[in-house]
Structure formats: structure tokens, C-alpha cells
Amino acid sequence: MNSESRLLSPTDPALTILRLAALSAGSRGQLDAETLTLMSDQVRSGVLGSVAADRAWVELSAGLMAQTPSNMFRALHDCGALKVVLPEAAALFGVHQIANDPSQVDIGGHLLRVLDETAQSNAPMPVRFAALVMNVGKSDSPPEHLPVHYRHIERGRIRIDEMCERFGVSEDCRDMAILALAECERVHRVSEVRAGPVAAMLERLGAFENTKRFEQLLLLCACDYRAYPGFTGRDYPKAALLKIALMACENIEASDVASESLEEARAEAIAAVFHSERWSGGQL
Known about the structure:
Blueprint: H1 3-6, H2 13-24, H3 33-44, H4 53-64, H5 69-79, H6 82-85, H7 87-90, E1 96-98, E2 104-106, H8 107-120, H9 125-133, H10 152-167, H11 171-188, H12 195-204, H13 211-226, H14 237-248, H15 259-274
Antiparallel strand pairs: 1-2
Helix pairs in contact: 2-4, 2-5, 5-8, 8-9, 8-13, 9-11, 9-13, 10-11, 11-13, 12-15, 14-15
């Protein structure tokens, strides 16, 4: 019996299952079949039913911050534990969404790739947590709309709030998750043709007051972009576009412009640097 298998005789078998999965996200690498089988047996026996959510989060967050988070979530999924401790994430496997080539991707598989991208980018916890939860509203989208996920933001907001309450997640993680839920797909659609909506987006993202949060959101969007097939290792063009737009507005002082004219002034500055129309209507 290997060392991992011997660890499955603990005082608290529930936490040991989670800890083994978390360790697999680090230097130990993926768990072997024997260990996963033993973990599955433990899960079927119901040991995870008694684990406190805050204790579970200690192990989950450790794996989330490790070098290959996908190993932990894959192990938890394969042994059945993910359905118990993170049913919102487990429900994403087997659900598809629109992509480029191929035309659809499994959201669960995509989630694993995004998490590994955040690790490769040395992203902080708020970015990794947001990557984990920002698609949880897509698990039960109306089938007649698939692979489009109609009203997933409303469903996702409720679930993210519930997860944060359950695990005692920090406020900065919750804030980034809610921001990513609302804005990540919009960032992917940014166009230099539409200067006005870009100015409005920068305001919504808090880019003028909270540069750190803005940079973290762009990092998350870049990881999401690179997780799609064919985009691994590429630069994320939308981040560059938004940073150019932000720089174009840096000399516009809010104190020098009437509040009702501030967005117009920013739109004009962005239009000049984009060589586009000042305002083309609509919202990103």
C-alpha cells in the first residue's frame, strides 16, 4: 500500500480526503488509482457529511493556491467528493458553452484549465476564487437556450453569495467573484470601435479608483481566454485595449469636469486614441 493510501486511516477521514486532494495540487502530483478508489469508498460511506464547511475550506483553499489546482478538483470529482463539498462546481461538468474551435467546450473541463492558468500566472486568491465560481450560474441554464446561458448572472450571484457565507470566504474574494460574474464576458467583447461603452465599462470596473482590482480582473479574464483551445500562451488583446483606454483618460481630472460631462470627456479621449467614434451606443 502506498503512503497516500495509508493516510486514509485518520482520526478525521473527511479532512484526510480533502487534504490528499489538496496535496495532489502541489509537488506530489496526481493521485494514483488505488488512492482514488479508497477515497471513493470513504465518500460513499458518508464521511464527508460531517465535515464543517470552514474546515473544508482550509484544505480547498490550500489546493487552490498550489501549483496545479486542477489536480485537486479532478481528484475530488473522480472520487465523488466534489458533489458533496462543492456541488456548485461539480454541476458544471458535462455542461457546454460556446467557444471558437471547437464550437463548444465543457465548462467543467474549462474550469480546470482556467484554474491552472491562474496558478501559472501566480494569481492571488481573489482571482483564483473568482475563476472557481464565476460560472456556477450556468449549470442549470434553460435547455432551450443552450449552449447560451440565459440569465446565468442572476443565478450565479445567489450561489456565489451562498458559497461565500458557507465557507466564510473573505470580502475581497467575494467582491472579485461578483465583479467577474458580471463583467468577464463583457471584457471579452470589448471593441475599439465603441469608445463610449469602453469609458462606461472602465467606470463600472472601478479602473479610475481601484487599479489593483482592475488589474486582477484583467488577469482573470486573460486566464479565462488562455484556457480555451488554441489560445494557450497567447497575449490577451482585450487587456491591452483597456489599458490603452485607461491611459488615454489619465489626464482627465474628475474635479475639473462636471459629473455629467466626465464620461463624455473620457469617451472623447478614448475615441482619439482608438481612432474611432466618440460614442457608438449600446453597452458592453
